Amino acid sequence: MSELIVSTETELSSIKGFEQSLFQALRRLQQAGEVHAKRLARYGGLTPMQLLVLQVLNSEGRLTASSLCGKVSLSAATLSGMLDRLEERGLLQRQRDDQDRRKQWLHISEAGRALLHEAPPLLPPEFRARFAALPEWERHGLTAALLRAAELCGDVE
Prior knowledge:
By secondary structure, the chain is mainly alpha-helical.
């Protein structure tokens, strides 16, 4: 039992050496995301997540809300309100399944496609330019590291 406690204390002390740097890096990413979200809001009043939802629907053709939840990492409750707002703006449509009336399909509308065609990218232009300038191996490594960091955060909703 004492070996387990010692091991845990050692692991925690090694984490403390990284904690401040990790927190600062996560905070910088959060701030950059907030600044870009404000830019997106000035364009057509879309949030980054609304833009992502429209992009996913555009690429997939049609999805159920539960499938969409998994693809955009949102809870059903959060996504439901977002879908209502996008539907009110005429950017997506809901359609009952012909075979199973309980199932509802989500489609991007023509207005949603037109908005996507003119919408700014999900990532800030400065980041996109710097990222594009990295060697391919570094782009893959950075993407993998960020995806892994997101996994370590667990479910936040």
